[in-house]
Structures are given as structure tokens and as C-alpha cells.
């Protein structure tokens, strides 16, 4: 989660909403990525999407069933869907997101009968630091 | 929708689940893409994701509020989330997807309070041809 938080801090410096993610395999980091939709002109470029794409490319396969994903914010519906498609083993996330989250909030996607893979989910990991980064970012833009 | 169906047929020839998508702006096609997660080693590479990324890259912006998306199958949660993030104006889709859809089925994402943009939605466009393509594909693999 330290690497994901570092990526989130870098995103803030680029003017992007500060969210970062990492993927690990057997305890080793495979890929780290930050939220970057504005910089990349890509509305799908959330941190989770970027890190899943990077890890799948590096491992040359489209299923990451032995990988764990760490992200500083509760995933949205798009990212929760991608986590299920990628068959991620464990999901660790930081701050909860009542406005846009899809794990504890909104569609609670992993509890839907149309969700075909449910990772083990651990919320609240590094939540204070992840939440502070987001609050500071939005406070500075007001 | 004819272009999206053509892309779906090409996906089947590549051994990918046959789903295709197109994005139009003022009645002109901006981008066409097919489902390609296996070929690209990218679990996020559904047709809708590929076409949104291509159109955003071409238009050099991360919001496509003046664009319409055409896809041969009801979008899943990942793709419905991406459609909302991209601020797509109108969504036209073909076959319904009771097993994995997120528009009429499962999370019905565009009706969730955590969904921040709802396109106008038109289902059942070219549904018979889109559904036949999927049925033929899965029947041939059994």
C-alpha cells in the first residue's frame, strides 16, 4: 500500500485526483500505477485499470488469479468490474467512497449475481493517509 | 450498428467473444473496436472500453459528452462505469445480457445514486443479429 500511496501523491502533483494502485504476485510488486484520465485523455485510466493492464501485459495473460490488488480508494463500478474480469485474488483498499464506490456503496458489485468472480476484500488499509490526500487535493482546488 | 456488428464478426474470427462497438459524433463514425481481451492480454479490453479509449485519444479529451456509443451487447458493470465516466450522450445496444449485463440486469448501474452521468439508453438495436453471433460462437466452441 506504501507504493500505491506514493503513486497517489504523484497523481496529485500532475493535477489528477490522487488515487494510486499496485499489483503484487507472491509478495513482490508487479506493477504500480496512478489515476491519469486527464493527462492520458482516457476516461478509463483509473489507477486500478492502469495497474491491471500493466500487470496483464507484463505477465502476458488476461487473468491474474494469483495476483492481489492494492488501491488507495474504494473501487468504482468500472474498476470493480475490471477486478472481477481479471480474476484478482485479493483486493485491499484504503478510503471508502460513499459517492462513487461500488464495493461497500452503490451497486456493491461483488455481491451481484452477475458478478462472476469475487476477490477476498479488505477495506480500510491505509485509509487515513489515502483520505487525507484526497481531502487536501479537493480543498486546494476550491 | 452495422460497423459494430462487423467488428463483432471479426472478433469471432480471432477467437474472441463476438462483441463490437462504435462511437459516433454528429452522425460520423469516430472509432470502431472489437472485444479483444485474450489477444491483447488485457482483461479490460471489452469492445466498449477499446472504442471509448480510441475516441478519447483521437479527440484528445477525456470527456465525450457529444458522442454516442453503439455496442452489440448490453454493457457489463465495467463498461457501464466507463460510459458514465466518459459522459457518453446516448447508448445504443443490441442483445440483452441477463448473465453479465449491468444496464437492465444486475446492478442496473445507470439507476444507482453513485452513477454520476446517465446516457439516454436505447436497447434491442440489431439485437437478433448480435445475439445470433454470440450463440453461434458459443455453440461452435462446445
Helix and strand layout, with pairings?
The structure is a homodimer.
Chain A: H1 2-13, E1 20-25, E2 28-34, H2 37-40, H3 47-59, E3 67-73, H4 77-85, E4 90-95, E5 120-122, H5 127-141
Parallel strand pairs in A: 3-4, 4-5
Antiparallel strand pairs in A: 1-2, 1-3
Helix pairs in contact in A: 1-5
Task: Provide a compact summary of the structure.
2 copies of one chain form a homodimer. The first copy, chain A, is an alpha/beta fold and 142 residues long. In chain A, 37% of the residues lie in helices and 20% in strands.
Structure description:
The structure is a homodimer of 142-residue chains. Chain A is 37% helix and 20% strand. With 142 residues, chain A is an alpha/beta fold. In chain A, β3 (67-73), α4 and β4 (90-95) form a beta-alpha-beta unit. The mean pLDDT of chain A is 97. Chain A starts with a helix and ends with a helix. In chain A, strands 2-1-3-4-5 form a 5-stranded mixed beta sheet. The first copy, chain A, has 5 helices and 5 strands. Chains A and B meet through α2, α3 and α4 of A and α2, α3 and α4 of B. Chains A, B: Keywords: Hydrolase, Metal-binding, tRNA processing, Zinc. Chains A, B: Its EC number is 3.5.4.33. Chains A, B: The active site is at 48 (proton donor). Chains A, B: This is tRNA-specific adenosine deaminase. Chains A, B: Its cofactor is Zn(2+).
Share in helix of chain A: 25-40%
Which shape of chain A, going by the Cα principal axes?
A: globular
- Count every beta strand of chain A, where a strand is a DSSP E run of 2 or more residues: 5
Note the run of SSEs of chain A as H and E.
Answer: HEEHHEHEEH
Mean pLDDT of chain A: 97
Uncertain residue segments of chain A:
none
Radius of gyration of chain A: 14 Å
Number of helices of chain A: 5
Spatial strand arrangement across the major sheet of chain A: 2-1-3-4-5
Structural class of chain A, by secondary structure, is alpha/beta
Amino acid at each position: 500500500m506504501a507504493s500505491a500511496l506514493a503513486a497517489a501523491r504523484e497523481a496529485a502533483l500532475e493535477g489528477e485526483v490522487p488515487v494510486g494502485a499496485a499489483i503484487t504476485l507472491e509478495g513482490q510488486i508487479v506493477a504500480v500505477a496512478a489515476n491519469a484520465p486527464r493527462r492520458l485523455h482516457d476516461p478509463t485510466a483509473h489507477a486500478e485499470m492502469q495497474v491491471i493492464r500493466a500487470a496483464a501485459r507484463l505477465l502476458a495473460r488476461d487473468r491474474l488469479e494469483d495476483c492481489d490488488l492494492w488501491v488507495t480508494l474504494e473501487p468504482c463500478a468500472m474498476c470493480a468490474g475490471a477486478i472481477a474480469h481479471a480474476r484478482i485474488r485479493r483486493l485491499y483498499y484504503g478510503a471508502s467512497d460513499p459517492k462513487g464506490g461500488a464495493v461497500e456503496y452503490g451497486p456493491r458489485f461483488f455481491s451481484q449475481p452477475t458478478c462472476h468472480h469475487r476477490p477476498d476484500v479488505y477495506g480500510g488499509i491505509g485509509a487515513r493517509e489515502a483520505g487525507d490526500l484526497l481531502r487536501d487535493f479537493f480543498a486546494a482546488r476550491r
